[in-house]
Each structure stands twice: as structure tokens, then as C-alpha cells.
């Protein structure tokens, strides 16, 4: 059992190092190591001052016992000097450590965002869950807890590591002091005298071992409860945001009651987990508080026999008590930080799960598992031996092939749920389930307009230019595009920053997406029911505008109205044949 615990601990610490090591080998490594070495030097300086203070206690109490007024004032002045140095080191150690922690968090956030958003990994994680709920919370909250700690700045990896290092160095510095000043203790046992050298060291060690074992026994449930707390809190926040983003739909349905019930149900899970967390935290706090209070009088009780026998002076007694307290605190680092370690380990476990999912998904993309989508030098879009499969394994389109020529105008039709949008996702290279090859023109500009346009937060100018930068086009071009699609009322509001997906109707959002297409002027434009929220007259006007402004572009549309069919020369249809969908071209 002990070997299993040690192996698990080594495996966990090895995984933590895998998360931490890349930063210390990155392009920022020089500054990071300089900051770290400086913080370590200040930490060692503070430990050295603790040793000096311990000697000061002995001399100060001896001066009091001897009523030596001159030494008393000299020692007070010396204390003032030592205190000033201690304060300066403590302040700048904290300042530089926080600087290093934030630089580390910034670097990790950039790396995780790049890995999450790169190669469409974020999309695959949404359609193929791998135990990575709420990636936003893992990047924002778990990375913060891993690097800088909780909101009060307590419990980050660097702080915990420095705390452990401080405990080890302090232990090494004070064990020899405690061993020397405590001296031997003679105990009569079964008629024989047993002499225990440096007995206060053994007392501190026994006290810390018992306390550590009992602390883990009392608080071990906190690790899983903290893990669940982060997940449940993130889930509750996510659904609050969902209600806000879909406020109009909820209001039109009159869905306040079910939304309230759903949110309260999720919050009840938060409350129930929090209640358990309170219970176990109460037990742990009760034990550790008692442990720390007992540690105040324990050294007096153990050392008092030698003091009352006259073997040591009052100054030596106080030095023993101070040294015992320091050694005991160093040995009890695990006890004092167990709640922080539990919260930290929960965040690390969530980060490790997320990190593995990112690596696995990126590896699948690199190996091109499933569909093989590539850009080459040919001018056409070509699909060969295409099989499209749902995440549950059901085949929705089998052994399909087709070619789209430059300048084509193709309408894709078929029953709802037959796989039209999935075919578009496959052509876009984001659908991972299936087999076959898709070849896209290497240098062609390709743009996909989904039925529900994505509108980023920010200014209207940036929303229209998305995914490009507004500066690439200029305000005159953006205004002309907005006006041409019938959004004249928005022409003078380009600088307004709003959540535009809540400000605009479904039809206005689709008009905005068409304005994007007019700005970007892609060579290949794919529209997935991109005008379905508009009336037929408006739909006809927008398709006519696309035909007029982009006469050489290849346009492939998914639509059901005959209005759209009039703007296309070819038709692809998904039809049911022998229990499976096939693509009929014409």
C-alpha cells in the first residue's frame, strides 16, 4: 500500500513537471530563471535571519534575566536593524514572486489558447467530449490556481514549492541548533537510565509525523471535493451565460420557470458539494488549529524539567522553545498547507486532463485520423470515396465523390437531418468522423457562412470584418458593404461596442454575414441556409447582390426555397437509397 502511494505521488509530480517544465525552457527562460534565483536568494536570506533571530532571543532573555541594561538596549537596536532587513527581503521576495507567477501565467495562457484554438481542437472537443468540461474555466481559473493561486494569491505552484523549500532549508538550519541547545535527556526505564541525545529534535519529529498522518486521514476527501467544486461552479456559470445570450428566445417562449428550475438545480449541486466541503474543512481546521495551539506549550512541557533542574538558563529555554517551534513548523509544512494542497491538486488534475485531451486531439489532427482534407495546386474542389459518420458511428453518407469547378453555382438539397451541413463541415476540414479525401484549391480564398452567424464581442466594425481585421478594409468599404445588404441604420454605428448577437435580429445577423462575404470577396463561398431568416424578396436581393459583386466566385448553397434555386446552375441532392443517403449530382 505504501509503495502504491509513493508510485502515485511520483507519477503525479512527474505530470506536474510536464506541465511546468516548458516555461522554464521557453524563450522567456532567462528572465524566469533570474527572477527565480533572486526569489530563492531572498528566501535563503530570510531563513538565515531566522537563525540570527533565534540567537538574539537567547541573548535578549539572558540580558533580562541578568538585568543588564546596556546589553538590553544594544540588543533592541540590533533587532531594529535585523527587522528592517527582514521586512525589505520579505517585501521584495513577494513582489518578485508575484511578478514571476504572472509572467508564467501569461505564457501558459498563450500556449493553452494556441493549442486549444489551433487545428480546430476546440471544435473537436465540443463534438467529441473527452472529460474536458468547461475548457474556458480550465484556461482561466485552473491556470490561475496553478500559477498564482487563489484570489488572495495563496496556493500557487511556485508559492507552494518555495514554501516547501523554505521548510527544508529551515529544518536543516535549525535541527543542529535544537540538537545542541536541547542537550541530552536522561530517562529511567525499567530500572535503567536511558539517555536521549538532542531529545527535543526527536520530540519535534514525533509530533510532526503524528500530526501529518492524522491530517491526511481527516482531510483526504477535500481533494475530490475541490475538483468537483470547480466543475460544478463552472457548469453553473456557463448556464447563466447561456440564459443571458438567449434572453429573447427564453422570453418569447415564456421559459422563465424551467430556466429557473434548471439553474437552481445546478446551483443545488454546487450547494451540496459546498456543504460537504464545509464539513470536511471544519474537521480539518479543528484538528490543525488544535495541533498548532498544542505546539505552543508542547516545547515548554518537554524542556521544563531541565530548566527547573538548573541545567539551562531562561535564555536557553526560550532559544529551545523558539528553535523547537521553527523545526516543528518546518516538519509540519504538510499539516499547515493541507487545505491549499488539496485545492491545488484538484486544479492540477483538471489541467492534466485538459492537457492530455489537447495533445491527443492535436495528435489525431496531425495524423489526419478520419477524413483527409488538404489543399493542393488543383483549381477544383474534389471529394473522393467520402464516408461521413456521426460520433455514435452511424453512417450518414457513404462512398461519395464529386467535383466542383471554378465559377460553379451549385445548390445542395435534401431532407432535414440528411447530412447537408455535415457535408459542408467535411469540406471545411472540421468534421473528424469518417473516411475519404477532400482536395481544396491551394491558394483560393474560401469562406463558409453558417445558418447562425458568429458575431464576436466588440465594435460593429470588427464584427463585419471578422475574421479579418477592420484595418484591412477601411471604414468606407465596411460602410458600403453594410449599406448594400440593407443595414443602413447601422452605417453610423460602426464604432459602437455591443454584444451584437443580442442587439440584431436573426435576419439582420444574416445580412451582416453577407456583408462579410462582400468585404472578403472569397473565391469559394459556401452558404449553409445563410439567408433562411429573411423573406423571399430580401433573399432574392442578397443573392442577386452576390452574383453582381462576385461574378467569378464559386457559390455552393444549402437551401430549400425555389428563390435560391434560380441563382444556381447545378443541383446536388441527398436522397435515400437502400436505407442510406447518397449524393445525386446534376
Write the layout of secondary structure elements.
Layout: H1 2-24, H2 29-66, H3 69-117, H4 121-127, H5 135-147, H6 157-182, E1 185-189, E2 192-196, H7 199-219, H8 222-245, H9 247-253, H10 256-308, H11 314-331, H12 333-336, H13 338-367, E3 372-376, E4 381-389, E5 395-404, E6 409-413, H14 420-428, E7 434-441, E8 446-449, E9 458-459, H15 460-465, H16 475-484, E10 497-498, H17 500-503, H18 506-520, E11 524-528, H19 536-549, E12 554-558, H20 562-565, E13 570-577, E14 580-585
Parallel strand pairs: 3-7, 6-12, 6-13, 8-11, 11-12
Antiparallel strand pairs: 1-2, 4-5, 4-7, 9-10, 13-14
Helix pairs in contact: 2-3, 2-6, 2-11, 3-5, 5-13, 6-11, 7-10, 7-11, 8-10, 8-13, 10-11, 16-18
Structure in words:
The protein has 586 residues and is α/β, with parallel strands linked by helices. It has two domains: 348 residues, ABC transporter type 1, transmembrane domain (ABC transporter transmembrane region fold, Up-down Bundle); 214 residues, Rossmann fold. Strand 4 and strand 5 form a beta hairpin. The N and C termini lie far apart (70 Å). The N terminus is likely disordered.
Largest sheet: 6 strands, mixed
Classify the secondary structure makeup into a structural class: alpha/beta
Secondary structure: number of strands: 14
> Which residue ranges are poorly predicted, with pLDDT under 50 across at least 5 consecutive positions?
1-7
The average pLDDT score comes to 83
Q: What fraction of the residues are assigned to beta strands by DSSP?
A: 5-15%
Oligomer: single chain
Task: Return Rg in Å.
Answer: 34 Å
> Per the principal axes of the C-alpha atoms, what is the gross shape?
elongated
Q: What is the helix fraction of residues, given as a range?
A: 55-70%
Amino acid at each position: 500500500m505504501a509503495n502504491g502511494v509513493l508510485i502515485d505521488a511520483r507519477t503525479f509530480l512527474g505530470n506536474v513537471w510536464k506541465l511546468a517544465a516548458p516555461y522554464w525552457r521557453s524563450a522567456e527562460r532567462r528572465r524566469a530563471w533570474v527572477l527565480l534565483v533572486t526569489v530563492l536568494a531572498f528566501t535563503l536570506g530570510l531563513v538565515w535571519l531566522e537563525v540570527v533571530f533565534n540567537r538574539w532571543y537567547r541573548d535578549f532573555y539572558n540580558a533580562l534575566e541578568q538585568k543588564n541594561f546596556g546589553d538590553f538596549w544594544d540588543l533592541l537596536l540590533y533587532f531594529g536593524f535585523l527587522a528592517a532587513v527582514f521586512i525589505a527581503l520579505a517585501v521584495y521576495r513577494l513582489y518578485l514572486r508575484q511578478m514571476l507567477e504572472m509572467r508564467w501565467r501569461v505564457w501558459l495562457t498563450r500556449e493553452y489558447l494556441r493549442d486549444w484554438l489551433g487545428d480546430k481542437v476546440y471544435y473537436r472537443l465540443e463534438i467529441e467530449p473527452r472529460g474536458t468540461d468547461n475548457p474556458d474555466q480550465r484556461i482561466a481559473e485552473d491556470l490561475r490556481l496553478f500559477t498564482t493561486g487563489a484570489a488572495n494569491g495563496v496556493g500557487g505552484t511556485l508559492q507552494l514549492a518555495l514554501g516547501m523549500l523554505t521548510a527544508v532549508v529551515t529544518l536543516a538550519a535549525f535541527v543542529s541548533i535544537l540538537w545542541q541547545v536541547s542537550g541530552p535527556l536522561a530517562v529511567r526505564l525499567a530500572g535503567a537510565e536511558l539517555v536521549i541525545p538532542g531529545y527535543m529534535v526527536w520530540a519535534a519529529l514525533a509530533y510532526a509525523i503524528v500530526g501529518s498522518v492524522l491530517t491526511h486521514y481527516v482531510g483526504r476527501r477535500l481533494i475530490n471535493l475541490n475538483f468537483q467544486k470547480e466543475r460544478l461552479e463552472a457548469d453553473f456559470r456557463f448556464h447563466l451565460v447561456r440564459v443571458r445570450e438567449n434572453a429573447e428566445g427564453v422570453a418569447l417562449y415564456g421559459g422563465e420557470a424551467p430556466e429557473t428550475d434548471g439553474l437552481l438545480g445546478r446551483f443545488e449541486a454546487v450547494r451540496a458539494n459546498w456543504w460537504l466541503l464545509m464539513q470536511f474543512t471544519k474537521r480539518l481546521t479543528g484538528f490543525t488549529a488544535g495541533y498548532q495551539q498544542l505546539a505552543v506549550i508542547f516545547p515548554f512541557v518537554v524542556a521544563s524539567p531541565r530548566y527547573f533542574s538548573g541545567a539551562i538558563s531562561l535564555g536557553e529555554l526560550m532559544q529551545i522553545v523558539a528553535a523547537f517551534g521553527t523545526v516543528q513548523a518546518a516538519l509540519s509544512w504538510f499539516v499547515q498547507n493541507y487545505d491549499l494542497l488539496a485545492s491545488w491538486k484538484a486544479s492540477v488534475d483538471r489541467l492534466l486532463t485538459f492537457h492530455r485531451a489537447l495533445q491527443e486531439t492535436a495528435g489525431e489532427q496531425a495524423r489526419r485520423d478520419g477524413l483527409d482534407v488538404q489543399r493542393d495546386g488543383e483549381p477544383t474542389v474534389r471529394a473522393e470515396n467520402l464516408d461521413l459518420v456521426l460520433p455514435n458511428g452511424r453512417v450518414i453518407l457513404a462512398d461519395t465523390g464529386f467535383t466542383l469547378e471554378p465559377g460553379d453555382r451549385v445548390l445542395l438539397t435534401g431532407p432535414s437531418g440528411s447530412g447537408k451541413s455535415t457535408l459542408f463541415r467535411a469540406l471545411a476540414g472540421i468534421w473528424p468522423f469518417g473516411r475519404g479525401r477532400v482536395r481544396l484549391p491551394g491558394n483560393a480564398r474560401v469562406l463558409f457562412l453558417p445558418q447562425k452567424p458568429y458575431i464576436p464581442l466588440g465594435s460593429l466594425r470588427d464584427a463585419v470584418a471578422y475574421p479579418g481585421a477592420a484595418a484591412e478594409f477601411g471604414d468606407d468599404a465596411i460602410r458600403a458593404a453594410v449599406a448594400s445588404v440593407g443595414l443602413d441604420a447601422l452605417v453610423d454605428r460602426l464604432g459602437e461596442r455591443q454584444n451584437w448577437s443580442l442587439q440584431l435580429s436573426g435576419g439582420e445577423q444574416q445580412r451582416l454575414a453577407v456583408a462579410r462575404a462582400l468585404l472578403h470577396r472569397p473565391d469559394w463561398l459556401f452558404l449553409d441556409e445563410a439567408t433562411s431568416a429573411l423573406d423571399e424578396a430580401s433573399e432574392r436581393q442578397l443573392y442577386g447582390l452576390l452574383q453582381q459583386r462576385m461574378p467569378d466566385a464559386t457559390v455552393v448553397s444549402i437551401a430549400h426555397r425555389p428563390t435560391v434555386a434560380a441563382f444556381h446552375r447545378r443541383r446536388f441532392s441527398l436522397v435515400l437509397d437502400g436505407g442510406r443517403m447518397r449524393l445525386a449530382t446534376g
